[in-house]
Design a protein that fits this description.
It is built from 3 helices and 6 strands; from the N terminus they run αβββββαβα. The protein is an alpha+beta fold. Bound molecules: iron/sulfur cluster (2 copies).
Length: about 140
Amino acid sequence: MNCFGFIFATANLRNLKIKIVMAIIITDECINCGACEPECPNTAIYEGADDWRYNDGTSLDGTVVLPNGKEVDAAEAQEPISDEIYYIVPDKCTECQGFHEEPQCAAVCPVDCCVPDEDVVETEDELLGKQRFMHPED
Ligand code: SF4
Ligand code: SF4
């Protein structure tokens, strides 16, 4: 794409008012202090080597089809994403959309190792939809 094409594409994105955001990931600089875990409104943060579940801290129950089309058993224990450090489940992270103005894990982390995950790019609407899906009663 030449520079005019890039400018045009950027202008179109602005017109569409689509805000691109990313889920948060914990880097290997984590010191395992545990400060972030209780701050997550979606229970998306787990200690290294702990199993996780879709129904932990959410209203999900039984067999559910996630907004991304994946069918899961909400109560089934899932494999830890990390065995060594705290980790974030991308399917449960909404970047705190629907609850807070900013990611709470990043706000409390003493070593600034909660950062945007460039491999998990979502729009603000998608994140809000995920939040409403997990917490329809809120
Ligand atoms: S950004 Fe918010 S929802 Fe995502 S893991 Fe951190 S505290 Fe949880
Ligand atoms: S607050 Fe930061 S250092 Fe502490 S467990 Fe969470 S990610 Fe790791």
